[in-house]
## 1
Amino acid sequence: MSDSSAGPLLEARAQRLFLAQGSFAERGVSPTATADRRMLATDIDVLVSEYVSGFHLTRRHVECKSGKFALLDRILWLNGVRTLLRADSSYLIAEDVDLEATEFARSLDVELFTTKHLDAWEKSIGISGDVWPCRSDYLTFDAARSVWRKASDKDDEVWRFLRAALAFVEIESWLTFRYRLLNKLLRLITQLSHYYHTVLEDDRELCARYVFSALLVRFAQYLLAICEDSSRVLPTEIEKYLTNRLTFGDQGPGLAMDFTKATVEWVRRALTANGMKMPTEIDTARLHAPPEYTPEFVQLVRRLVDQSQDARYLPLAVERMQFGSQSDDVLVRYKAAANSAESLAALVRAFISRTFKVSSNLAAPVRGDLIAAYHISSNSVTPAASTNIANKVPPTGWQKQASSHHSPGPRAASRTGASRVVDGTVGPARKDDLADNQAAAEQQRMFPGTTPEPAPAPKEPAGKAGSTQGNASAESGAKLKE
Amino acid sequence: MSAERGKHIISAAKSLKAMQLADQNIAAYLDSISMAGRAGLFASALRHAGEISLERAQMLAVYEGFSRRELRKTLLPWLENGNLAYGKRLTDGTIESIESLVLTYDPLLIAVDDLFESLDPTQEAIGCIEALALVTELPRPQSEVVHALSGIVGEEHAKRAIELAKGYNIVVFVEGGGLPEPILYSERVWTRFNVKAAKSLAPLSANDRAVMIEFINRVKSHQGMPESLLRAEARKHNAEHMVHLALSVGLINRTQIQMSDGSKRLFLTTPHFYADMGTEFGEDMCDRVKIFLDSIRNGQHFGSSGTGRIVLPGKLLSKLLNAGEIGPCTAIGTDYVTSEQAGIVKVRRSKYKPGQSYLELVQRDTVEKVHDIVTTGSLIGSGPMTEGDISEGVRFGSIEQLRGEKARVPAPVAEAEREIIQKLRES
């Protein structure tokens, strides 16, 4: 959980496990009492969302622990989290679990697993260690996220917006579907598209592209929620119903219109009493006009309802379209599930791109460019040998494959030659990120007795590196070999 | 970017398709129309084809006069870049199949207009499309069209554009028979326009013509309008003779429905009704939709509260579609004779309420189309909805109109307006 001992590796493995089985799984979402980060309750290590017939959502969630912890307390706590998530089952994966508590845990719908179980599970469904589908590629996405988290502290309008959009993805948007959240998501995409049309560079540009893709995945989930919701509406009423929801969010249209009309009337009378006339442009009908994209949106929902069997895999298909790579496709169940909704995923992206005039660069798959910019070497965070399949893969091969299977995005080439990767080395600023995610420490805790490979010596003296890559190198000491 | 202009480009390209491939004038002046319009026709064909192989797409492209090379080098990149189609690719990058991503027709039309713009159209090509737009609105004397075009593309280009438009049937015209000059019109819309009608229109002043356009637009945006309603409106402005003229020359069409007591009522449509719907659904479907639409408008405008007046036509039709029948009430027994004769609905007498009847659904597709018209104001069911529709009224307005209204608001007011709308939508 948010506990720093957990680390991203185990969580990424758990996420990968579910993705490999054709289920949509995500990491890093947090329930909160506020829309921003002020009152975070905890975070959910891995949240699995599956859609069954009739677009009904079923959830599972995974808690990853390492080090010592109070097992029974954690089981009881998980039971509470499951209630919050309205999930069907909870999994607790830890390095070592006292299995005598298994029956007690099961009585509370909590399944206990050790990392050995996880190894076996991965083997049984053919997960090879060098494949990290979509955003389970923690060496890329977690590193990128860490950089952006720091950068977004800057007092910069675009960063402020990106920070808010990321908070929407990770905090506000995921727990429960609401039409007001749908409308907010669409507004964020509008703004993102607007910002992207101005010149964005480096981290801001990549972060914007990541945010777009993450919002698109969330939009796909919302669409399925809308399909389920509108199944309770008579077919001839769907258009009107959705029009009202796009116009008034979760509010009753009648009441909302009454409020605005009454307010305008109030102002009108006040003006009249003071001998003034209400300007003609003040017309409540303008406020109650549905968004321009309403007819297209309604057709999109209808199309998904018509293709409900395939549409169930839409979030996974969008995740793969935006964050996947060809190398992920060795996971046959993942590939089959995502393939079945591939056309629908393209349809959803086309709707968003057309409607909000999203540039093709912003809508392009982003993982290749994130790898080029942020990926940190696996040898710096994982030991060379362990029971973990992933760790058996030589880091350089891992890296090579991940990169080779991505068609570089629009800015990959320029970025590769720019600040992040110079002469096959990762920029020193990323060393701090490593310290942040504590992956190496996690590795040690999870696989005691294994020794991480020492970070290779820098190719150039720190002083020289600093001169080409900025002052941060002085803090980092040594570079990390790519 | 305009869906309306996209429609005109496609319409003009259809006319050019009939010409020989190596026509010099098309190559010199109208290539952009031909290219963009046929691309639109191809995209439209894809829309109805589902997921198809590349071979099948090639067949569709050839039908629109595109070679395999043009499909690969021009059409597919345009479709994919415009998010109009999705090419499923094999691992080596070759396209395995193609599927349309078009949800409603408007984005396709807008994309056609964009493509036209990107092809660097000649002033003559622009003039042809503008001319078609003008004469789609209303048949007009040639000099009036030239004058209007001169303001857009210059007089020399305007004159050449008119000659090209006439020569390649982008617009058609009537002349002779005592007409002082040719009258240009759109063949797609004004199908029954002829010399007699042209002679009646020719002497109209600019003011009369504006009144005529206003009447046509009123009926166009409220197809099935009772004739008495339009006449009453015309009387107020001392222009009833213009309604009479519009009816006599076929600019507005009149249909009647029969009541059970033998009385008749008259309802109006414009030729756009057939032009927009007939192409897609056929003339027979158009006729049936018009009959049932008239019946609903009759109940809406002439029904009495004592026997069953239609207050919310959208809701009523929803119920008919969902439940399969509505009623009982007295008006159903008297007002749906024509619709029943056309086999659209069936009237069933109530066993328990003497004099009252139920209306049973028979032709679902016809009733669905009428439902689309009365709820969205659109003939193809994808039009915008406005507050009037939300409250089940009969107000119709297009998105373009709403955009126009917004654009006129001063910037600080627009900013405040955006904030209120955001609050409304995100609450």
## 2
Amino acid sequence: MYERGWRRAGVLALFLGPSLIGLLAFTVGPMLTSLGLSFTNWDLLTPAKFVGGANYQRLISDAEFWHTLKNTLTFLLGYVPLVMCIGLLVAVLLNSAIPLSHAFRVMYFVPVVTSWVAVALVWKWLYNPVYGLVNNALSAIGVAGPAWLFDPNWAMPAVILTSVWKDTGFVMIIMLAGLQGIPREYYEAASIDGATRAQSLWSITIPLLAPTLVFCLSISLIGSFQVFDQVYVMTDGGPAGATMVLVERIVSHAFSYSRMGYASALSWVLFLIIFVVTVVFYQLRRWRA
Amino acid sequence: MRQELPPVSAGTLTGGARIGRPNRRRFPLRTVVLTLVALAGGLLMITPFLWAIGTSLKPSGALLSLPPQLVPSEPTVSAYTTVITRFPFLRVFGNSLLVAIASTLGQLVVCSMSGYAFARFRFPGRDALFTVYLATLMVPFAVVITPLFIFVTRLGWANSYAGLIIPGMFSAFGTFFMRQFFLSIPRELEEAATIDGASTLATFFRVVLPMTGPALATLTVLSFMGSWNSFLWPLLIINDRALMTLPIALSTLQGLYPGQTQWNVVMAGTVLATIPTIIVFLFAQRWVIEGVAGSGVKG
């Protein structure tokens, strides 16, 4: 950039201005507005009323909030370990010298590019207690399947299973990239020194893959707190509130019950959770480095 | 029978199986077992797609037969004609395409220019501002959605293409992604162009952008797929049926027949909506996979 004076400012405004305006108007502005709204009661029809911390107080004493938080954590505890382990296993499998590994990679990755609505609809039909493929496959091996999305005990496991199916390919691709970044010479040296396959996995693959594992862990944790599309289409929070999760509640409070203040307070709780998780992982990476 | 086995996890790219002592058989037992495991897993992954296609080709009467058939005995396209005739399917498809193309083009321009500014310009507060961009990456969409909805409605963009497209044209991730790419390319060509008297704008469009093909391709694919599959925002901002995008239209299909969802019709819609994504993915695989993998390694 060699322009000087006003021309220089003009060039800068041209390059950066649109992006900056968009960021302020559609992200930073709404975010701060939401913080402000969380201290008010507003139903969109009458003027907003300042209520101080009342929404946050109500939230703490609201059984539904704790129930929602518990469901979100249940999702997380089921989804994160499964998607990480299966993703890693598939990545190691496809990274070993097998024929057609490229075709397999595509098979595992296709669910990632499919829209959540399409996936959720297909799985809703797969989970149909009587006519669905899942229960008919189970009964073929002599297991009487549950009512899945209609059973409060099985709806969340069903949503978790579908989410793992959809995201395995995503985790796999990131881990594959990590695996392929490990220099082959390390394995060759280890094999010359007489290391077994298990020893190489434990002392070469896992330590060198650690940054990738931590990255996948942080992404899947943060994603778990923001589950929405699949829940909305498959169960809409039901049955009997068994799949109510944070984002689903935020959307319901804001757009079904017109409680803008309460929804904003909920959304800031979500933001604080994600903020803490992000900071912890950032510190973890700095500490490792 | 024991054989000398190749080292674990040797790269597929350069034929890891050939390392070590040559195998007597072309495919050792281990390779066969691993391939079968990968195949079984892969088939499990695509079974839901096959089930959707199978269901979409069934006549309504065959839906409730037990045990369900994966391959219908009397295939018919009646579910597809139902979707296309009773539902403004082509219109919805066109909406999704228009919104995805427009917001992707917007993102390419906005993000590459702002990314370039952060990579090459020197101005006061640059690094602080860039930190703000990075910080917004962790703001969940659910946090901004209520005020964003109110703001966009006040602008008069509810139920309009503007409401669907314009908020999607800006991406802090895109700016970050393009900045990283610009930092990785040498400055010499730009400096030469500047010495020859070209303006910054001309240098950017004639010298820099032609070198950014791979980054732009990746951003295009990520942005297009993000827009094509986006659900929550269009769900809130659109209630006019003529402006619905594919995911919204799909989600309403299951309510089209109260009491009993016609699953062959729903699956036909799902298949039609999914085919373009899969075709784009198959052609743009390299960019999709590099984009996802790259976001992991660098992020």
